[in-house]
Fold these 2 entries.
Entry 1:
Amino acid sequence: MIRRYLHALVVSCGMLLAIPLNQAGATEQSYRDLLDTLRDNGTLDLVQYYDLVDALDETDTSHEETEGGPGLGGRLMVDLAKYNEDEVDLGDGTELRQARLGLEGSFDSAWGYELGVEFADGDADVKDAYISYQGFERARLQIGQFKEPFGLEVLTSSGSITFMERALVSELVPGRHIGVGLATHGKGWSLAGGLFGGAFDDDSDDEGDEAWGLSARVTAAPWRKKRKTLHFGAAVSTRSPDDEREISFDTGPESNLTDVSYLDTDDIDDVDQVDRYGLEAALVLGSWSIQTEYVQAKIERREGMSELEFDGSYVYVSWLMTGESRNYRRQKGSFSGIEPDSDRGAWELALRFSEFDLNDEDVTGGAAEQVTLGLNWYANSSTRFMLNYVRVDNDEDADADGDVSGDDDPEILQFRAQIDF
Amino acid sequence: MIRRYLHALVVSCGMLLAIPLNQAGATEQSYRDLLDTLRDNGTLDLVQYYDLVDALDETDTSHEETEGGPGLGGRLMVDLAKYNEDEVDLGDGTELRQARLGLEGSFDSAWGYELGVEFADGDADVKDAYISYQGFERARLQIGQFKEPFGLEVLTSSGSITFMERALVSELVPGRHIGVGLATHGKGWSLAGGLFGGAFDDDSDDEGDEAWGLSARVTAAPWRKKRKTLHFGAAVSTRSPDDEREISFDTGPESNLTDVSYLDTDDIDDVDQVDRYGLEAALVLGSWSIQTEYVQAKIERREGMSELEFDGSYVYVSWLMTGESRNYRRQKGSFSGIEPDSDRGAWELALRFSEFDLNDEDVTGGAAEQVTLGLNWYANSSTRFMLNYVRVDNDEDADADGDVSGDDDPEILQFRAQIDF
Amino acid sequence: MIRRYLHALVVSCGMLLAIPLNQAGATEQSYRDLLDTLRDNGTLDLVQYYDLVDALDETDTSHEETEGGPGLGGRLMVDLAKYNEDEVDLGDGTELRQARLGLEGSFDSAWGYELGVEFADGDADVKDAYISYQGFERARLQIGQFKEPFGLEVLTSSGSITFMERALVSELVPGRHIGVGLATHGKGWSLAGGLFGGAFDDDSDDEGDEAWGLSARVTAAPWRKKRKTLHFGAAVSTRSPDDEREISFDTGPESNLTDVSYLDTDDIDDVDQVDRYGLEAALVLGSWSIQTEYVQAKIERREGMSELEFDGSYVYVSWLMTGESRNYRRQKGSFSGIEPDSDRGAWELALRFSEFDLNDEDVTGGAAEQVTLGLNWYANSSTRFMLNYVRVDNDEDADADGDVSGDDDPEILQFRAQIDF
């Protein structure tokens, strides 16, 4: 009879084998528990036990390889905005803020890749698109298009930032270019640097040489505690312009639906070099956090013309009312998204003050201050809903390079539904 | 003690089985049979038995979650058209009618998503792009871009419609916009409604406020029989124009390859409101079916200008010569594709009469009648080949807003190869 | 003994768990070994044994069906180019040379599909997009958009060609169009032919009839030896122009980053027909190979105008320094990529001479000769890095249709990082 049982079990194991498995995380833990139990009650001796554990660990590696196969994902953001206009029309309405598809994976422990494409505006804009080499201990080499290492909020995914849009001053941050970068990290610090050319569409009309730049960022997080993080960061970037030697900065209010760019320097000519400096700090204490950044850009022009200096900053406070804590990624020196503790989701209240000044010397690009009050509901770790109320205070020169009147101070109420998959 | 081992092993096998399955249907049944056998012969007592069955049922739930992971798919349509031209050139040739990629999935029983992108025309046009909430009993909430609930043929996927192109009058149906919708259904009825803004590319040049609209659709299917369906539906939509207060309707013949739009109202100005009404009916009797729709649009203009009224309709008969029956989706009140009964595929013969009138008061957009004879071969449930012969009868005003001569009556022969994956 | 059984079962369960959750090849072999062992030691009788083996074989079939589901992949190429300019600016810089996503699969042994989209230039260009029927023995029918059967280097994937860019003369090869094709092959030969319309974006502005063409290619590979291949091929194509009866040829140097097209015939009018002829040969001897092609295009114009004749050719030698051999795909008569023998990757040195002449009769499109020295490192079968040094020798007429000066002889140094996933 025992043999019958055994036969039945072998058959059932055979059947099990037929099952194409996907994600055995929980099951694996149960299996490890089983092995421990069988060792404890003497069914397995220690040699057998460790053989089985080792086999499991090995398959874990192969499991990682499997996970390294093309991982498909995407993100969707749907926005609604209502403008309480002051002077100019801003255009109430709806939009797909993001509609992204992406693939990432790796072939072995060494070579990996990522390719993300954004479709929301009817075009197909390639976002991250790089090959990575992880074969070094604690260092990672990337070649392709990705974000230059500069800025805390810009290096935080748009799916994980606290407010619907990044602060005004992110216009000064270099962002994505094609290049090569190296990143490393220790227990409480990260360091990244890179050499970059222009963006992938930088070269459409003109056959002059592309712009190129160098940037580097260092972060330190002295505490290694759960729900407590202290973060400091500093970044520098220097960039040579392309053969046309022009540069311009422009940005709308912290709302994407309108196309009005109040702040606009127009083309600045005869540029020799652009240097940028960034300082960051953040403190997480349980469900409370505060984050701040300052960015400055210095534009050297040809002999005889004065240097230009633009800068901006923001500071915000966030309170996760349901008790969660913001997640810090020590290896990258940036934050990832909120994971709700309960099935009812997480609620967050946040307040940001942001200022940006594009006026200097002969350039009157305008200056603005904005205050944003945000309320977020994280239905689960992939789905969130955001409500932002923004007060805009533009100065006289914030006239969209003459297209609208200055000193225009609208209010914005905007809503977002977002899902990451 | 042996029994303890066996029990431990059976439990461990149960855990293994819990591994998220892909298509473990058959295996799972075998495993349930095994559990029954082990209970019957006393190896498992009832407590053990129900523990294992419960565990299995729970993993069934997780099975659904796994299935909810990103499901990748797409569709390809390749067209060939030969025009027997009357007056103007229509341009014989070939085209990729559709080349779509899409992702859909859900995270748990509550939150899901869909994102589809169309590449056939060299751009990347986002189609369905929404977040859905299915946590209610029998109701479904959607936010994002999707089709307004209006029209039987428009709500039937382009991969499942009976002819190569939808009837002319589908130009009056609202189609996809960004908004929020709620759908519910009972045993023999469905009800859907929503509030919508403009389409995702509605806001490119102008900063006026977007258009917005409300629509609702109710369907009833009084019979619950296999191979027999009686469907009735009605829909209303009201839409406020955007700040420019313009609207226009235009459509070519029921053939996509040519760019000639015989019917064209040009811009209609000073629009206050557009109301639409739709009526639908369909009857399936075994392999025969008949389907018909009528749509009317009323355009209110500023005080003193007369109201405009455009309308159109179609009626068609389909005969599945190989004996299959059209599949009705009771929950959505629309039809899905044909599944061939045999390996040799299914054959369908269909005839449609379609008419559309864009002439009213001061607007002479033209009117047309078209007759289409269609022959479809469904090689399998994913692959089909279509041959359509279309006779076009345009009136004098069907002059593409003056670009071509009116009363132009071409014939069209067109072929499509289609695959859904 | 019972304990031994139990131990065997626990081990087998451990193995089961080890299944690399997607591709169970190795595990399945272990399981088959286990079944053999249990049969040999009497635990399983022969009936039980074959039941289990049969069950396993059946699940194998379903496994293959699963593999037929959508296979997702992509390719990324990141380029850097430095031009040692002679006369005109070529524009040093970086670019995403390719960023592709694609899906392919099949439903059963008969029907399959492929859809690939290229995003590198900000648009979404559909590449291969076809439905295939493989139900015939040794023959394959395709309908949709794919490469016309013509040319060895053009029919080799851009991810597998030996140099960063194809030779100049590939401008004369028809490339991708929408049509229907049939391919068959024997032990040492392949034959493919097709009827094609225009490319998918051929019809945007004009409603004249599309161009259409016929092409056919035959290849022979008389040897069936490992690491030794002798390949011959010949192709013909005839194409009628569209209603505008214009054709033009233009190409830049063998570098994609610059937009300068030195060779340019401008529009050639009154075209009646374009006939093309291609000859190919390749010899692989271990890690050495030589490959050459000649392509000629004859353009017949209206009565009274002389026929035009353009042609070009290339020959290259490749040496895989680490001992690998180029892989020939007998069924397609083309080459696939290099698979490194060792973990340290494969190194390849290659030299190409290329010439192309677009001068004939009244057309002075220019002529060029180019020599390319290439060094490739294949880190693994999916990842490679390429360095190309190109010397360009343009003639007086190679003036980009008057936009630049002729006799411009730049040198090019370019680098590529590439990953296929």
Note: Chain A touches chain B through 61 residues (CB under 8 Å).
Entry 2:
Amino acid sequence: MSWTLAQIAEHVNGQVVGDPDYTIRSVGTLTHAGPEDLSFLANNKYRKFLASTSAGAVIVAAGAEADITTNLIVVEDAYVAYAQAASLMYPIPKAAAGIHPSAWVHPEARLADNVSIAAQVTIDRGAVIADGASIGPGSVIEADVSIGRDSVIKANVTLCREVQVGERVVIHPGVVIGADGFGIANNQGRWIKVPQVGRVIIGDDVEIGANTTIDRGAIDDTIIGQGVKLDNQIQIGHNVTIGDHTVIAGCVGIAGSTHIGSHCAIGGGTGIAGHIEITDGVQLTGMSMVTKSITEAGVYSSGIPIEPARQWHKNVIRYRQMDKLFERVTLLEKRLKD
Amino acid sequence: MSWTLAQIAEHVNGQVVGDPDYTIRSVGTLTHAGPEDLSFLANNKYRKFLASTSAGAVIVAAGAEADITTNLIVVEDAYVAYAQAASLMYPIPKAAAGIHPSAWVHPEARLADNVSIAAQVTIDRGAVIADGASIGPGSVIEADVSIGRDSVIKANVTLCREVQVGERVVIHPGVVIGADGFGIANNQGRWIKVPQVGRVIIGDDVEIGANTTIDRGAIDDTIIGQGVKLDNQIQIGHNVTIGDHTVIAGCVGIAGSTHIGSHCAIGGGTGIAGHIEITDGVQLTGMSMVTKSITEAGVYSSGIPIEPARQWHKNVIRYRQMDKLFERVTLLEKRLKD
Amino acid sequence: MSWTLAQIAEHVNGQVVGDPDYTIRSVGTLTHAGPEDLSFLANNKYRKFLASTSAGAVIVAAGAEADITTNLIVVEDAYVAYAQAASLMYPIPKAAAGIHPSAWVHPEARLADNVSIAAQVTIDRGAVIADGASIGPGSVIEADVSIGRDSVIKANVTLCREVQVGERVVIHPGVVIGADGFGIANNQGRWIKVPQVGRVIIGDDVEIGANTTIDRGAIDDTIIGQGVKLDNQIQIGHNVTIGDHTVIAGCVGIAGSTHIGSHCAIGGGTGIAGHIEITDGVQLTGMSMVTKSITEAGVYSSGIPIEPARQWHKNVIRYRQMDKLFERVTLLEKRLKD
């Protein structure tokens, strides 16, 4: 397959600077791209590689095109345009419709005609799988799960009973949705189980990264809004709700019954306490520690980055002496006043 | 199915205030419950919803019942009573006994008569599965694993060779127990593997959350005590021991050879160094960093919660200047003395 | 099986002190070993157990043998020698060659003659599996994956399309390699997917712990160097590269496009930002927060360990008042000068 720069520019709503009939076959980074590759510049850190790139063409934002001699496609947002161009060139491969002979599908599951069920899959009673959806090898779809049109469940995924998955959702390998939340009550020193009877509802156009876990609700449902994008190894507790178009990077943990707004962006490794509210439009930088509700949009951070171990030792000691330092300064102030 | 308040009150050892013949069919939260739902008040944060709840009845602790007009079940501990009531109403569904035709069971595995082996399961040589136990779809039970009575292994679980699982244990999807611990030795710049020959022993009444991993011992065994409750995505290193009735929230990492006492409670995202001892009755709040042994019961914490990013930047700089600040204060004290 | 101390000493390049014909059958820790067990002393913390050990023989480093009455094997590095001895006594069991009847292998996959394919495995079109490699139960090998000689893929692993695995690699259960990286672009408030078209390349002699995830490259490949050892539940983002013989402990998260050098050692729970460079020979202690490139080898740390909760509360408040304290000290200095 190949595309002219004119075709790509039309698809991404951009302008060609250079030869519109130049032919592109694949994509490449500025440093590794060859003459048949389309590249892009979205992070100024990589601007230095523009002068020497061998890319056949480069997508750049308007205003960034000065002094570049290679073919360009000039757009409003270079990363969005690259995403659109790459999606044109690399459409998600559609698994062939059909049920693999090694899959086991309960006779009372309801599968639309053109679904794709891979090898070693298990689909239990009452599951409903809509048109165009596909289930990857080794995945387990428990009773009464529903999966919307054109959703893609990859390999070795587990969707527990009654999980509801919207349309065009992508769920990567190893994900577990709908396992019991961590509901326990302490009965005279021993922990007894609180039955987890809520469901998990996943909105349309959600993507969920590898080995992420989302617990079912204790009573009400756990809800992931439309267009939410979750990276790998995220843990979402029972009865959490996440607003539409929020993105969460890897290794984030969100404790139970916390509500996160729409259009938030949560950095990797962040921990969020249970039973709090985070309003719309909040950004948290990586490894943030959130213990209270956040009522105003904005950027929030915590954590102290690394330093050489020797200094770190010293600073930790100083940290623990701060309280005494405050007392010393107060005393100094008093003396000086006297 | 339905239950009268009198039946539920008897089961949870409580007193009905209101109509003992009132009929309940399900459970609900104070805000969403309807007239056929039983609700409860265990967290004072939600007390404000009591006045307007449509719940058919509410479980409350003695002393909290004032001014409530709905039916009540008054108990000593509302959350424990709710757990008991919900367990009555939603018993863990028992998988039908039998071996699914798509499962593969080694002829030298020993399965009690009424076990349930789901689709796509693998059970290897020498595995022993006791009465009433069930193995979920896609799970792998390696050689010489033993699983006690009435234990429930959910979907896509891996129990590696020789793992011993007690009775009434629940293991959620994606869990891996008994993989090799991280045992490596540096031989002139290259890392060589240290064989991991210990086992993992899981006590009775343990529950293990989705995608949690527990490594086998290097030489001695890794041991999880009775009644321990583990949330999702916990990592437990080789030769760790965890005392009875300890609970650990999600995303906790425990490095090798650390011993944790009984009746501890470890908050989510906590990291615990290797080769240390944590005594009984220790509570760690979320995201704690534990580098040394803890010899006294009590509550311990670390971490600095988020602040607006601009202040955070400033405070991190201040943190790094603390040592100089101490010098400045010492100098001031000296001058003032002079 | 049994071995004389002379045989073991020869294998580990050590000297017997005591009876070279003494027979050993297994290994044990100093505290639990019996007369047929070989033990070792590598961590001085455990030296106190030497006097009372019942071990048949103990491996110790030269210089540490004073006052010990049991049989010894004296070596240069006790832990390396123990690893070598234990590997002699406990060789990795080789799965029998053959394809289990419940496995599904695409007719266009290419399997060498003596590979071992376990139950419930899926191997897709174009996969290539070399001599001596084994695939554990329930694992999924997607299209065009290649697995090198003598590599061991354990149970319920997912290797996504085009992943390249070197020779003698060990991949533990639940690992996902080659899932899509977290590539999204914000198109007027909605996130659109950036196709992930790179691969993952795993070098020879790599070991990867349970439930670890390694994302495929966005354009270029994600690369794990030779001899790298990864513990459990590590998350490695797209286009990360990790240099040869680097080791990473559990629960580490590495964001996309970061390059880590050779012979690094990264402590558990560490978080590393994207698009940075870490040079060779860097050590990071547990729970480090890395936000910028590290250009010099050495030991780096961050994080403030736990303290009793009451002190922690006070110190967090003091931390937030630091900026004002600096102002107060500056004012004091000014006054004193005046």
Note: Residues 309-338 of chain B form one domain.
